[in-house]
Specification:
Elements: E1 22-28, E2 31-39, E3 54-58, H1 66-76, H2 80-83, E4 94-99
């Protein structure tokens, strides 16, 4: 198991703004195919399915998120695999990234 088996774990501090929700970007290789705004139920701190959270679905060109989308796709995306120590590996076929 663990890193030797290709597993990854992100250990991060609590983000109080999670109550506003998170954005999940769904990608196929380097193409954004959809955005989900996952908002915890009132008084909650988790947007995981089954917790009463509210999911709102958007297309990849949603104007509301244009600044984040453009910066991520044009500046940050090429740095993802190197930042994970996987610079020589291809980006996954189907993957997601979350923004809080």
């Amino acid at each position: 198991g663990g890193k030797e088996a290709g597993g990854q774990l992100v250990d991060q501090r609590f983000c109080p703004r999670i109550v506003e929700g998170e954005l999940r970007y769904n990608l196929v290789v380097d193409q954004l195919v959809g955005i989900i705004h996952k908002k915890p139920k009132e008084g909650g701190i988790s947007a995981v399915g089954g917790t009463g959270s509210i999911y709102t679905y958007y297309g990849p060109e949603e104007p509301k998120f244009a600044n984040l989308t453009n910066k991520f796709l044009k500046e940050d995306l090429e740095q993802v695999m190197p930042a994970l120590g996987l610079a020589e590996e291809p980006i996954p076929l189907w993957w997601t990234t979350d923004f809080i």
